[in-house]
Design goal:
The chain has 389 residues and is of the alpha/beta class. It has 2 domains: 293 residues, Alpha-Beta Barrel (TIM Barrel), CATH 3.20.20.80; 83 residues, Immunoglobulin-like (Sandwich), CATH 2.60.40. It is 28% helix and 22% strand. The protein has an 8-stranded parallel beta sheet, sandwiched between helices. An 8-stranded antiparallel beta sheet has the order 9-10-11-16-13-14-15-12. Helix 9 packs across helix 10. The longest helix has 17 residues. It is elongated, with a radius of gyration of 23 Å. The chain starts with a helix and ends in a 6-residue tail after the last strand. The relative contact order is 0.13.
């Protein structure tokens, strides 16, 4: 049974539809992927020296939030600690943290404060893995040397992140921690309004999939697809050549929304906190499209109308939105098996379209020869009942 607290906790996430992921850590200094420590088997004493060259510029967090706002995203997620074990926050668990090394200050604090000033929901990524204790991606075995120190450090870090920064909106697990149920129970007490994703081996507030659109079996649950904008999570210098186009990103976004889900799209900032120009351009283009078409995304739900080969649909009450990812003019046909479509117009321009329905077939005519939006032209369809699935 869903409680009112659970409903209130997740409602903002169900409405947000779009978030920005930031993978950032000492691996950004090398620019060779966030898994470099494990994949290259770098000696720890050598790798940890990267932290002294990890020197974010002043104002990096404000620059990030300016881009998040410009992109139209409603929330952001920062890798507070990735598998390399480096804490972007002040921690009593290890000297391998931002205030104690190159940055000389608490970067999670700067991120949280900037997010709140920009009215962006605050998400923190945390992995229980820590390669400084074991090369095994599953983490140290319970009977291994160093396991107790690893477990104590992990518990300390979770407590610090959940108690030192005020309300956190989203906790983004990436791995199954020891004592999972005990930790989740404590987190619920410390942060009762915090959404917790399911990448810790438990069915929790938000289902998650990676690089594929895979809704959960329970479609009433919030869910999110995370993917990269350029095939890498962490910053990769000259190797960042395969970037998404704006059309690609918008297609991912609206296809997630058409199944009732969110898109969490990643950026890998440089070590100084600057955002690569290609990422700035891409996320600004997404925001340009959302400013005209956000009505068809934010707060939308899956629709009973189907776009067929043309694209996908979203809905809100008695209004459906047809996302034309493949544009044809002047006439198209879609299906509406449950409700009658009474009128149609282009969202971007308000231009009315001719519509008639024969059985479940909806024939829409009068589309302009050129698509108002090459990435995704949206048609608004008014129906005689709820258009939601």
């Amino acid at each position: 049974m869903t409680t009112s607290l659970e409903t209130n906790r997740v409602q903002w996430l169900k409405d947000a539809r779009f978030g920005v992921f930031f993978h950032w850590g000492t691996y950004s200094v090398q620019g060779r992927n966030e898994w470099a420590l494990a994949l290259e088997r770098t000696p720890l004493e050598e790798y940890e020296r990267l932290a002294d060259r990890f020197t974010p510029k002043p104002g990096w967090a404000e620059d990030w939030m300016d881009l998040v706002v410009a992109s139209g995203a409603r929330y952001a997620v920062l890798t507070a600690k990735h598998c390399e074990g480096y804490c972007l926050f002040e921690s009593q668990s290890t000297p391998y943290n931002a205030p104690n090394t190159g940055p000389g200050r608490d970067l999670v604090r700067e991120y949280v404060d900037a997010s709140r000033r920009a009215s962006i929901k605050v998400g923190l990524y945390f992995t229980p893995w820590d390669w400084r204790y074991s090369w095994d991606a599953a983490g140290p075995a319970p009977d291994s040397a160093g396991y107790s120190a690893y477990r104590e450090a992990m518990h300390t870090q979770i407590r610090e992140l959940c108690t030192n920064y005020g309300p956190i909106d989203l906790w983004w697990w990436d791995g199954v921690p020891p004592d999972t149920d005990e930790i989740i129970a404590w987190m619920r007490q410390a942060q009762p309004q915090m959404v917790i994703n399911d990448r810790c081996g438990r069915v929790l507030d938000c289902a998650s999939c990676e690089k594929e659109i895979r809704p959960p079996a329970d479609t009433s649950r919030p869910w999110e697809c995370c993917t990269t904008s350029n095939e890498h999570w962490g910053y990769v210098g000259a190797g960042d050549i395969r970037w998404m186009s704006a059309a690609d990103a918008i297609h991912w976004l609206v296809c997630c929304a058409s199944h009732g889900g969110n898109l969490l799209l990643n950026i890998g900032p440089r070590a100084d906190g600057s955002i690569p120009a290609r990422a700035q351009r891409l996320f600004t283009q997404i925001g340009d499209w959302l400013r005209e078409n956000g009505e068809a995304v934010y707060g939308s739900r899956a629709s009973s109308l189907t776009g067929g080969a043309l694209g996908c649909t979203t809905a809100r009450s008695d209004t459906a939105y047809l996302h034309l990812l493949h544009y044809y003019a002047p006439e198209i046909v879609i299906l509406s098996p449950k409700v009658q479509v009474q009128s149609a117009y282009l969202l971007a321009t308000g231009q009315p379209l001719h519509v008639r329905q024969v059985g479940e077939r909806v024939i829409i005519a009068g589309l302009p020869r050129r698509a108002p939006h090459r990435e995704d032209t949206v048609i608004v369809l008014k129906t005689d009942g709820s258009a939601e699935a």
